[in-house]
Amino acid sequence: MKVGFVHLGCSKNLIDTEAVIGKFKNNNFEIINDEKQADIIVINTCGFIDSAKEEAINTILEMAEYKKNKCKYLIAIGCLVQRYYDDLLKLLPEVDLFIKLDEYDYFWEKIEDLVKKDMVNKSKTNKTTKKNKIPEVPMLTQEEFLSRTITTGKNYAYLKIGEGCSNRCTYCAIPYIRGPFVSRKKEDILQEANKLANKGIKEIIIIAQDTTKYGIDLYGESKLAELLKEICKIEKIKWVRFLYSYPEDITDELIEIVASNKKIAKYFDIPIQHISDSILKRMNRKTSKKQIEDLIKKIREKIPNVTLRTSLIVGFPGETKENFEELLEFIKWAKFDKLGVFTYSKEEGTPAEKLPNQIHGNTKKARYKKVMELQREISRQNMKKKIDREYEVLIEDISFDGKYYIGRTMQDVPDVDGLVYIKNKQMSDKTNKINKFAKCKITDVSDYDLIAEFK
Q1: Which residues contact 270 (CB under 8 A, 6 or more apart)?
Q2: What is the domain extent for residue 418?
Q3: pLDDT (tens digit, 9 = 90+) per residue, 308-361?
Q4: How many separate domains does the chain show?
Q5: CB 206 within 8 A of CB 240
């Protein structure tokens, strides 16, 4: 049977998708990229915020249309299913099988039951995860990590070092979906990293809900810096980066390893969410305005060429005009290289859902727009500083018309940050530079992308 996959959500969720693809391949199913030709369609859903939930429902309904033709079975898995299992059973009878995160231990048994067509009653008697309770979500097994099918191409792969989150920010549903933070064993991570390197992967991107918490539950202290050192010893790996590092746990040791090791991207992704102390307290964040500002100063002092990325939330309950203006002034001061902003999403079962002074939707949208307009100009000014500088670029594609090769510098996260467009002066040469590194000189910039030429 032919199986098609639809992935929704974050890079952490993508690893689950890759593991599930690996399960089907190992059981002799044919994996295809065209859902129209699939006998089975598997949708890995996201249930983080309202827009993600809406996208997941719409995608399921879209894929259900294929059941009128070739598709025999429609399967939904992932975060939305974990969070709203009972509701989805009633809402979406088009789906033949829902599999929650805490059922992944017997994932394949459920698939076999489905194909044997005796799964309907069984699915409806499964135990459900009560809303607002912390579920016990199993980590993927080491075998599943090692057998996953990499879907991100030949150059980079994500490496998940932990599951779940224990930070309990008041706006966030992740602990109620994924459970508390659980670290993988260091030796297991290194085994997977070596396997990825032997497959030809050039860049390892380390992820978890909060990478700086890695090792605390297993070893009594953060082991992220130590883990980075060990991964960098793998000869075939050229670039290493880590994402989602919370400010309270960025240590001097971590800053030093980033500063001193040539393989590690000089890049910190620090989700601070806000800068007003009163908002940070209501969010149950663990840092203050002064601590955040001091951290930024320290990182830039130790690593002058560092790239700083952050994410923010506007419209959190109780955010006053003064709080928002304070945030704008901070953005002007910090001049982040990369910045993402979300409007607050009122998530069912989270403490923030019941906070007073919820912000009107139009106000949230207006504040979002102001932040993005401000950051667009900051980004343009930061980008202009790169003109005439030389960078090593990993070339990953070529434009449709063949005029430009397309790649990334070490300071750009795939699918998140900007791209480098390198002029292809020899139009007859359209492929031999792809998946290779090249020295390039920046000649021009746009808001978020770079224009370059080969050196």
Answers
A1: 245, 246, 247, 250, 295, 308, 309, 310
A2: 390-454
A3: 999 999 999 999 999 999 999 999 999 999 999 999 999 999 999 999 999 999
A4: 4
A5: yes
